[in-house]
């Protein structure tokens, strides 16, 4: 399996959206350099309030560009970085990857997938109706979270649009992604 990085973004402050940039530097065990969510322990404000000492399983947020296409067809305008993601990809079904999958981004950066992003009310504030478009309920009652995946940085490196994304699946049995 292989995909492509189509955009990268970061924000040094806790804003909902991130700013697209020419490249980002991933730092092992921390996340995206100069991004407010980088750290060994959790940096998301709501999670810090619950337990500031918990490990940061959300160092990097990856989103599939195919979601933007789907949202566009439904009348929403969403660009890379708008939903807070650091890395936008194309050509990979990120949501179907099992926990523990390793993604090599570019020449040397490696991110291990930890789980699904749990869409929150900030998405609704960004564009009314968008939360329902990225958080749907299946006929069997389970929630389908489409707002990307989260991961931790295992090996650092520079990541830029056009970089290849190589997928290494973990040993079986595979564990499906859950919200983190």
Automatic annotation (TrEMBL):
InterPro entries: MoCF_Sase_C (IPR005302), MOSC_domain (IPR052716), Pyrv_Knase-like_insert_dom_sf (IPR011037)
Gene3D superfamilies on file: PK beta-barrel domain-like (2.40.33.20)
Domain MOSC: start-end pairs: 19-168
Domain of life per record: Bacteria
UniProt name for this protein: MOSC domain-containing protein
Organism, as annotated: Deinococcus sonorensis
């Amino acid at each position: 399996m292989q995909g492509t990085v189509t955009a990268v973004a970061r924000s040094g402050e806790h804003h909902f959206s991130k700013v697209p940039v020419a490249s980002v530097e991933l730092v092992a065990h921390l996340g995206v350099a100069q991004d407010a969510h980088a750290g060994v322990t959790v940096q998301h404000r709501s999670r810090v309030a619950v337990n500031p000492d918990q490990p940061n399983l959300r160092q990097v947020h990856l989103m599939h560009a195919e979601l933007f296409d789907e949202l566009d067809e439904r009348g929403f305008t969403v660009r890379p970085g708008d939903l807070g993601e650091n890395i936008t990809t194309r050509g990979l079904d990120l949501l179907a990857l099992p926990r523990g999958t390793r993604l090599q981004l570019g020449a040397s950066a490696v991110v291990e997938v930890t789980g699904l992003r749990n869409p929150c009310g900030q998405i609704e504030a960004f564009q009314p109706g968008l939360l329902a478009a990225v958080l749907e309920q299946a006929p069997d009652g389970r929630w389908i979270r489409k707002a990307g995946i989260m991961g931790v940085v295992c090996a650092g490196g520079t990541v830029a649009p056009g970089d290849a994304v190589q997928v290494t699946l973990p040993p079986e049995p595979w564990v499906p992604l859950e919200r983190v």
